[in-house]
Prior knowledge:
This protein is of the alpha/beta class. The chain has helices spanning about 5-20, 35-45, 65-70, 75-85, 95-100, 120, 125-140, 155-165, 195-205, 205-215, 225-235; strands spanning about 1-5, 25-30, 50-55, 90, 145-150, 175, 220, 240-245, 255, 265-270, 275-280.
Amino acid sequence: MIICKKPGTLRDLLEKKKIEEQQIGFVPTMGALHAGHISLVNEATKQNNIVVCSIFVNPTQFNDPEDFKKYPVTLEKDILMFEEAGCDILFIPSVQDIYPNGITKLQHYELGFLERVLEGKFRPGHFQGVCQVMHRLLEIVLPNNLYLGQKDYQQCMVIKKIIELIGLNDKIKVNVCPTLREKDGLAMSSRNSRLLPADRIKAATVSSALRNIKENIRTGDTKQIKDEATKMLFQSGFRIDYLEIADADTLVLVENWDGKQKIVALAAAFLNEVRLIDNMVINT
Ligand code: AMP
């Protein structure tokens, strides 16, 4: 595995591969790897000649500075895990490389409703930061295939939108991969390592609450089934940002379900200062 720190070096390396018409798959991450990240790399190695992964803890997407400061960093372990999974080139840029003009006065992206609902509403500025880093990374790597996790459902939608906004939708195929979970159902996440031991046990309630919706939802008013799930989270000591049922393609909230509309249940909630998110698609 080649480790590359400079955008120019990576571009030169990939230029050669592109001339040879090699398929390039890209897996962007913020490091602190777990099996969920590796499942994306596995998918990428199956479908491409060259797999590029990146580690960059993007300062502009943290609406909470404390969350940024406490974001876990496990670089040596990550390098070994990527290498073992079959990553060919690992890109580890600096903040200066990604933001050569600094992190203020950055480009604004028109995300519309996506930025006003759920994660967009509760984490102001977060998706602008995601767009800034993805715009830069995609311009540097220009992959044929991009691999993202369904765990960050709304982020997948935002990234598809930015790819369209920057005119790369004919060049880059987005592959959304399933959420990997721990045995008790907790969605794997780098932030899970920050949970206190007692909270780690309670944390699986997010997925049980969503599963309860998936298994028991009926047509009509969605309030009662959401209330049940909310109660489960409260009883486990969560502070809830949101627990909603939304249209799977637009994220418009669904208060009355006709049984046919494609929907997804999504939640974000805190245990002490650790914020967990998860989602489950109800029907396909
Ligand atoms: P992050 O390092 O949190 O920015 O995540 C990097 C990529 O891994 C994103 O596309 C995430 O959606 C994806 N990812 C994170 N957790 C999981 C998981 N449990 N299963 C599958 N993919 C995941």
